[in-house]
Automatic annotation (TrEMBL):
It comes from the Bacteria. CDD domains: ALDH_y4uC (cd07149). Keywords: Oxidoreductase. It catalyses: (2S)-3-sulfolactaldehyde + NAD(+) + H2O = (2S)-3-sulfolactate + NADH + 2 H(+). Part of the sulfo-TAL (or sulfo-SFT) pathway, a D-sulfoquinovose degradation pathway that produces sulfolactate (SL). Catalyzes the oxidation of 3-sulfolactaldehyde (SLA) to sulfolactate (SL). InterPro entries: Ald_DH/histidinol_DH, Ald_DH_C, Ald_DH_N, Aldehyde_DH_dom, ALDH-related_metabolic_enz. SUPFAM superfamilies: ALDH-like. Residues 16-471 form the Aldehyde dehydrogenase domain. This is 3-sulfolactaldehyde dehydrogenase. The keyword Oxidoreductase applies. PANTHER family: ALDEHYDE DEHYDROGENASE. Its EC number is 1.2.1.97. Belongs to the aldehyde dehydrogenase family.
Length: 480
């Protein structure tokens, strides 16, 4: 067994605090405990909320320049320690070291985007005299912070998806209570280190670790929390929304991303792109490609390319430079994926690649002939499985793409601009990638989905709007 490192502390009320009750953090690759974090109690969350109310006044009083400097310094802190952040991401989660380095680089960028948007969060004048009788009125609106924001984050991108909440939240002058995923809390705590080092005043940020059942409801149901910014599964999101009461909600939820391959495209390039999009982060990726619809005239040729590409995904230790894919977050999730695949095979599907589990590792799997009513077609697999389906037309591909209760992003591969624009307009999703898989994102773009994929948009310039309020100021002047 690996020696337990000294347990991490959580950031509560501006202080790093410990608790006797602790939650182990395991490396999913070998099941070894790599660290532990405090298990906050209900009283700790109550205190966090009380402190955050004080923190909100402090955050609002920060000048725009101060907010910019803090976010830029925190970004530099991460850049200077990228390997350390990457190793934390890789060890506590499923990502390979190369994937983790990419996430650490993106998280620094996400913080810098917050600094930029802090500068741009202005308002504008209003022409009151557009309505007769208002000739002597003038004014403007401006933004002010929501106040206290609860940021609840998932396990799969344990650093950048926390940054996507904290960066716009601080940029807009809010106090943040971060409740990271129980499986991967360490990266969120390191982000807090970066922000504290950058000079973030005490009480503005809390990163509280604990079991959802102990602290989740206290956070979600508190009337002193003005907004919940949640990223996670649809079921959890719905449960939180029901308990939240009257407060702002941002929901980045699940997906079941489709891709369309038209006959006029480069089939090998499409297969390589879709393989990357399906198996990044072991498929534990909200943008992961799950269903591929291929024009039937090129189905067999595409199948050959896709089977070869999926079979070439290199498994290995997460910290090895040449590993393409690591394990799922735990063996329980790998067993669930295995059960979904077995159900699909029992219903008539067949395996073209993969289909093997070794502990928490599930081999990259390609299926065909899976019936539409199979669980793995309708629900979010959130694992390394992708399915191919022949279609007779683009219309059929679009209709079938839209047949699930998710709509985050989709991809279409075609050289035909009319086909691309038809897909762009008729796919019921938050983003359509032309000649890319669904798994494309830059942190500055609007990000989010429709149906069971969520409410609202992240992407720092868009999240900052959701994390702010507008106030109109109107002057009624005498003669002027
Ligand atoms: N749309 C996006 O941007 C996006 C990004 C990443 C992941 N996701 C989704 O997240 C899911 C995978 O992540 P996960 O397994 O961590 O999700 P999850 O829903 O199990 O957990 C997400 C977070 O919610 C917390 N939580 C769970 N129950 C809670 C409760 N009752 N009250 C308060 N907090 C509670 C968890 O501890 C965790 O911090 C997938 O569905 C994936 O699609 C979406
Ligand atoms: O898992 C979902 C992530 O938001 C996708 S990305 O890592 O931000 O591209």
């Amino acid at each position: 067994m690996a020696t337990k490192t000294a347990g991490r502390k959580m950031l509560l009320g501006g202080e790093w605090v410990d608790r006797e009750d602790r939650i182990p953090v395991y490396d999913p690759e070998n099941g070894e405990q790599i660290d532990s974090v405090p298990a906050a109690a209900k009283e700790d969350m109550e205190y966090a909320i009380q402190v955050a109310e004080e923190g909100a006044a402090i955050a609002e009083s920060l000048t725009v320049r101060e907010r910019m400097d803090i976010l830029n310094k925190a970004a530099a802190y991460i850049d200077e320690r990228r390997e350390e952040f990457a190793e934390t991401i890789a060890k506590e989660g499923s990502k390979t070291i190369n994937e983790a380095r990419g996430e650490a680089k993106r998280a620094a960028e996400t913080l810098r985007l917050g600094a930029e948007e802090a500068r741009r969060l202005t308002g504008e004048s209003i022409n009151f005299d557009q309505m007769p009788g208002n000739e002597n009125r003038m004014g403007y609106y401006y933004h002010f912070p929501v106040g206290v924001i609860a940021a609840i984050t998932p396990f799969n991108d344990p650093l950048n998806l926390v940054a996507h909440k904290v960066s716009p939240g601080i940029a807009a002058g809010n106090a943040m209570i971060v409740k990271p995923a129980t499986e991967t809390p360490l990266s969120a705590l390191k982000l807090a280190e970066a922000l504290v080092h950058a000079g973030l005043p005490k009480k503005v940020l809390t990163v509280i670790t604990g079991r959802g059942r102990d602290i989740g409801d206290t956070l979600v149901e508190s009337s002193k929390v003005n907004m919940i910014s949640f990223t996670g599964g649809l079921e959890t999101g719905e449960a939180i929304a029901k308990k939240a009461g009257l407060k702002k909600l941002s929901m980045e939820l699940g997906s079941n991303s489709p891709a369309i391959v038209m006959a006029d495209t480069d089939l090998k390039k499409a297969a390589d792109s879709l393989t990357s999009g399906a198996f990044a982060a072991s498929g534990q990726n909200c943008l992961g490609v799950q269903r591929i619809f291929i024009e039937s005239s090129v189905y067999d040729e595409f199948k050959k390319h896709m089977t070869k590409a999926v079979s070439s995904v290199k498994l290995g230790r997460k910290l090895s430079e040449d590993t393409d894919m690591g394990p799922l977050i735990n063996e329980k999730e790998a067993k669930r994926v295995q059960e979904w695949v077995e159900e699909a095979l029992d219903a008539g599907g067949n395996i073209l690649a993969g289909g093997k589990r070794e502990g928490a590792l599930y081999h990259p799997t390609l299926l065909e002939n899976v019936p539409e009513d199979a669980t793995i077609v309708k629900e979010e697999v959130f694992g390394p499985v992708v399915m191919i389906f022949p279609v007779d037309s683009l219309d059929e591909a679009i209709t079938r793409s839209n047949q699930v209760n998710y709509g985050l992003q989709a991809g279409i591969f075609t050289k035909n601009i009319d086909a691309a624009m038809k897909a762009a307009r008729r796919l019921h999703v938050g983003g359509v990638m032309i000649n890319d898989s669904s798994d494309f994102r830059i942190d500055a773009m609007p990000f989010g989905g429709v149906k069971g994929s969520g409410l609202g948009r992240e992407g720092v310039a868009f999240a900052i709007e959701e994390m702010s309020e507008k106030r109109i100021i109107c002057f009624k002047l005498e003669d002027f």
